[in-house]
Structures are given as structure tokens and as C-alpha cells.
Specification:
Length: 89
């Protein structure tokens, strides 16, 4: 099995949790993928998820603003108009 950049993390999770090595590798891959998502894709995905929950655009854009500020590499603050343009073009 080829060595990967997160082998130490996978081994740590397998040792320190009830996860098997395969489960830990899947969790790490999912987290890395989540934080690798580009800004437009993240905004569109979260907008669709929140819209399905019945939130209004005003509520969604406020939630997105708060969520974007907590990203590992936070983008500069975006206005509701900028978020709307990402979602609707």
C-alpha cells in the first residue's frame, strides 16, 4: 500500500479511537475533501442544503457569512450580493 501524506494522522486516529485503519482513512479523506472544496462550490452546495431545509435567502446568506468566517482559510467577507452572484450567476 503506497504511503500517503496523512498516514500519521490515520494511524493516530486508529490508535486513539474505535475506528479501524480503513475507517480512519475514510474519515481523513472526507475531512480533507471538505476543506479542499473551492469557494463557489461550497457556497452553492450549502445554499442548496439550507434551501432544502426551508430557509430564506436572507437567512441562508447570513448563515453562509458565518460559516465562511470559520473555514480553515477564510475568504475575505462577501456581501449578500456577492454570494447571490455565486449561487445564481
Amino acid at each position: 500500500m503506497p504511503a500517503g501524506p496523512y498516514d500519521d494522522l490515520v494511524a493516530h486516529l486508529a490508535r486513539s479511537s474505535p475506528l479501524s485503519a480503513a475507517e480512519a482513512a475514510r474519515v481523513v479523506a472526507e475531512v480533507v475533501g471538505y476543506f479542499s472544496e473551492e469557494l463557489p462550490e461550497f457556497v452553492r452546495r450549502r445554499h442548496a442544503e439550507l434551501k432544502r431545509r426551508g430557509l430564506t435567502n436572507e437567512q441562508i446568506f447570513a448563515a453562509l457569512d458565518a460559516e465562511l468566517a470559520t473555514r480553515r482559510v477564510a475568504p475575505p467577507p462577501l456581501s449578500a450580493r456577492q454570494l447571490r452572484r455565486i449561487v445564481y450567476g
